[in-house]
Design goal:
Blueprint: E1 2-5, E2 13-15, H1 20-32, E3 35-40, H2 46-57, E4 61-65, E5 76-81, E6 90-92, H3 97-107, E7 113-117, H4 128-133, E8 140-142, E9 150-153, E10 161-164, H5 170-182, E11 188-192, H6 197-210, E12 213-217, E13 221-225, E14 233-237, H7 242-255, E15 258-261, H8 274-281, E16 284-288, E17 291-295, E18 311-313, H9 321-330, E19 333-338, H10 350-359, E20 364-368, E21 371-376, E22 384-386, H11 391-400, E23 408-411, H12 423-429, E24 434-437
Parallel strand pairs: 2-15, 3-14, 6-7, 10-11, 18-19, 22-23
Antiparallel strand pairs: 1-23, 1-24, 3-5, 4-5, 7-9, 8-9, 11-13, 12-13, 15-17, 16-17, 19-21, 20-21
Helix pairs in contact: 1-2, 1-3, 1-6, 3-5, 5-6, 7-9, 7-11, 9-11
């Protein structure tokens, strides 16, 4: 699909999409919970749908229904589970990096041999940590030199292990959930050089919401505590997604003002840090409970002024790079973003992809070891860009198009379905002109 976004100003209100980070963790917890879980505000991105499919492959039954609470809008997801009891010999995590890393150790709670598969870019993403850790906890594994597909056979037997947290926190999330579900309280997980700590906070908050007790010492040592029996019925509400909302907030800052609703200001999601960057630019921001009003910078007389370049460390929130590059492109001066090393193994090599695609728009980006320098304020050119099959690249280009000197066409724009299916629809709702064309 080709999406063409035209320069325009935005106005109005938009509810943030459901967090796929929260949704996928909720699905995993619902699978591990022996009982019934009702998940409110369920997401429907490709990654969310892959998670729903996986927990069904691992033994849960899933139905959709209208919630009985009239104060909650939309449908809810009902999950019935007796724990991990695979219904077949394989499962497919789609293109979800969190899904593959989280559900694989959870699947290994079974003693059944299971083939773990994925699609698209996931086939090129390294999974060597499975080979390094699984034999230490009783899991037999056969991989393709650290890549998918892999075959595993449990059951997982909790033991004291040390995990390298420098590549991803997602594998640690799976181990924490699997260990917690065994109710084994003697084993500990030690972690070296953990990145993306806020995502582990999110994992621990989900586990706590279901009744499991896990504590850590400075994110270096994780221990599993005894807890009362889990409730037979658990309700869980998926948060609004700060990752997806970051694009809406940037759009509001460069082309608003708009109002974004449905975000928890006390969220543990790492991408909540986008507010720090937006404030540094001088954007006009007014925050109330679950509501953020955001627009361009204003001077002392109330007139709109230019946004300022900023410096930001995205090491713990690497998914913010694309929206922040879109923001930096419009800011006057050189913006410095730290944490580029975290981008190599995403849906694309995002550092290089951002540099390549934004160059087509007239924006110079330099990669200097772990830093990215964005030379903004030089004007955005209308052009055709390629998402590189990366949902966040497609959205970044769609947002910056609002300030271009002509329309920007994005090929392979359907990549947004991975995390934010309604992205272009939401831009249209806020007043953007967007043409969506299927490509034969």
């Amino acid at each position: 699909m080709r999406a063409t976004v035209y320069p325009n100003t935005l106005k109005g209100e938009q509810v943030a999409p459901a967090s796929k980070s929260s949704m996928q963790r909720a699905c995993a917890a619902a699978l591990l919970h022996a009982g019934t879980t009702r998940i409110f505000n369920p997401g429907h991105s490709n990654d969310d749908l892959a998670a729903i499919d996986v927990i069904q492959k691992l033994g849960a039954t899933v139905t959709m229904e209208q919630p009985s609470n009239e104060k909650i809008n939309g449908t809810s997801l009902i999950v019935h589970s007796n724990g991990v009891q695979p219904t077949g010999s394989s499962m497919n995590c789609g293109e979800s990096g969190l899904g593959i890393r989280m559900f694989t150790p959870i699947a290994a709670l079974s003693d059944q041999s299971i083939t773990i598969e994925g699609k698209g870019s996931l086939l090129k993403r390294p999974m060597h940590f499975f080979d390094a850790i699984f034999p230490k906890i009783g899991i037999k594994i056969q991989s393709q030199s650290g890549y998918l597909p892999i075959q595993i056979k449990g059951p997982l037997k909790p033991a004291n292990i040390e995990v390298d947290g420098s590549l991803s926190s997602q594998f640690l999330t799976g181990l924490l959930m699997a260990y917690a579900a065994t109710d084994h309280t003697n084993a500990v997980i030690e972690v070296q050089d953990l990145k993306s700590k806020p995502y582990i906070d999110l994992t621990l908050s989900v586990l706590n919401a279901f009744g499991w007790k896990v504590q850590h010492q400075d994110y270096k040592r994780f221990e599993f505590l005894a807890h009362p029996p889990l409730a037979a019925h658990i309700d869980y509400t998926v948060e609004g997604d700060w990752s997806g909302a970051a694009f809406l907030l940037v759009a509001g800052a460069i082309a608003g003002p708009i109002t974004v609703k449905g975000l928890q200001l006390d969220s543990t999601q790492a991408d909540k840090a986008v507010l720090q960057a937006l404030k540094a630019t001088g954007a006009s921001i007014e925050i109330k409970e679950h509501t953020i009003q955001i627009g361009p910078a204003k001077d002392s007389t109330g007139l709109v002024g230019p946004l300022k370049a900023f410096e930001f460390d995205a090491t713990d929130c690497p998914d913010l790079f694309p929206p922040l590059v879109a923001l930096a492109s419009v800011c006057d001066g050189i913006t410095i973003l730290h944490g580029v090393s975290r981008l190599a193994h995403k849906e694309s090599d995002r550092g290089l992809t951002l540099q390549t695609e934004f160059a087509k728009l007239g924006i110079r980006i330099e990669l200097d070891q772990d830093r990215m320098l964005v030379y903004g304020g030089t004007g955005i050119k209308g052009a055709e860009v390629f998402s590189q099959h990366d949902h966040r690249i497609a959205m970044a280009c769609g947002v910056v198009a609002l300030c271009a000197d002509g329309p920007i066409s994005i090929t392979d724009a359907e990549a947004v379905n991975k995390s934010y299916t309604d992205f272009f629809k939401h831009l249209q709702h806020l007043g953007a002109k967007v043409d969506l064309d299927k490509i034969a």
